[in-house]
Amino acid sequence: MSDALINSLAAAVESQPDDLTLRLHLAEMLVTAGRGAEAIGHAAQILAREPGHSAAQQLMARALGGAAPAVPAQDSEDPDATPAVPARGSGDPGEPPTGTEPPPPAAKGVDWAALEEQFGDVVPPRFTRADGEPDPVRGHADRAFDVERSTVTLADVGGMDEVKKRLEVSFLGPLRNPKLRSLFGKSLRGGLLLYGPPGCGKTFLARAVAGEMGAAFISLSITDVLNMWIGSSERNLHDLFESARGHAPCVLFLDEIDALGHKRSQLQSSMRTVVNQLLTELDGVDGGNDGVFVLAATNAPWDVDPALRRPGRLDRTVLVLPPDATARTAILEYHLRDRPVAGIDLPAVTAATEHYSGADLAHLCETAAEYAMRDSIAAGEVRMINQADMLEAAREVRPSTDAWFATARNVAMFANESGAYDDLAAYLKKRKIR
Prior knowledge:
Blueprint: H1 3-15, H2 20-32, H3 36-49, H4 54-67, H5 112-119, E1 148-149, H6 161-176, H7 178-184, E2 190-195, H8 202-213, E3 216-220, H9 232-246, E4 250-254, H10 257-260, H11 269-283, E5 292-298, E6 316-319, H12 325-336, H13 346-351, H14 358-379, H15 387-396, H16 401-414, H17 422-430
Helix pairs in contact: 1-2, 2-3, 2-4, 3-4, 9-11, 12-14, 14-15, 16-17
């Protein structure tokens, strides 16, 4: 078996560690090439993810069998063959007494201590607690985060012109022009905090940034980090940033950052250490963050720890507002394109849905479809979704952003000493929310 082919497969597995089919193929080639000790590690990693993987189980048995070759039986025609060991209890002279039989010789060329150290973290614990949690001494195995490749770009995002300009200046422009970036000493590290009412497309915008730059995309929520065991949450957070650094250029999206990076003055000691770890990772103390662009989103920026918004961390803040008229029209078209519609005046519906979020508009289309379906069931024949359905749904579904702006108004008026919410104050003044 060609070593060059094996090395190529090993490189492919290293770049795609979660591709179990590719890893299994590499392990089979290693066994065929007589490199069973290396194949054991790959088979163990497959079984750690899928304990019932029959092909990996058979391959593990073959690899283990090849790691310690059996002693050949004595051949009467070969005087140089190794003598066979007499069966226990055969009564031959010189047979050691029962209970004092010497242990079998160790397989030559196998460093068991090295194998134990190499695969100790790969093989999962044999016993778990009744509730399914792992052994508290070992903690959780190394996390494997989903690394995506987004097909959405900023061209798919309706409106948000100011947000797009900010992204272009802070990251996308320097990324496309490496010579200018070098000339002006612009770093690709740093982060952007997206805030605004819920349902206005902050997550969609983050995916569009990743798709625009052709970068990897990793999305994180608080459930991916927090763990009941001391130190495990901090380790999960470190593993996340290490994965992002390994896939640079990468967009790392921290959703609901106010939950993960809440003000430490309002937290218990166990959660304060998680915030401290997040600050350390954003600073890139243990590893450079060049090529890792951190996007964070929150509905409550006033609850985020101030240290997270210092220069070099989430140092740029952008307000993501409800979609404007052009964006609302595009959103309505998207949610009606696969539904039976007739006679809908989109400009009129757009005018009736001012201050609606993208999620509100999706719910409005769903409600209008329910009206038409209800009448279709009652009449026994299909009725199209019409303008009356859309306007009736607009009267029933009220914009969810009003409650958020009522809360944000107090912050913009009474807690804006540093000018962090000037854009929010300007928008509230424009809407005459006082």
